[in-house]
């Protein structure tokens, strides 16, 4: 297992916005990029009674995102993702070299 630093936030804060919760519940959203580390692989979280498991966590440059990555985030395109992120975070600049934690997850299958 990869060595990860200490988490910067609780896993329950990974996905909070109602539209993103709905996208995860529908299967459209399978990734969440965050400035901090919110979860480790194998950890679970619950959205509206549905359990999800974090499958991978990677450190990546925000500038390496593709349209496919933005779609896995629940957005139609990278341009829309970027536009919305900049609107949500006042005074933020898009820095291609900025590093983010990519939390990949899937719906937990019942045993």
From TrEMBL:
SUPFAM superfamilies: PUA domain-like. It comes from Methylomonas rapida. This is ASCH domain-containing protein. It comes from the Bacteria.
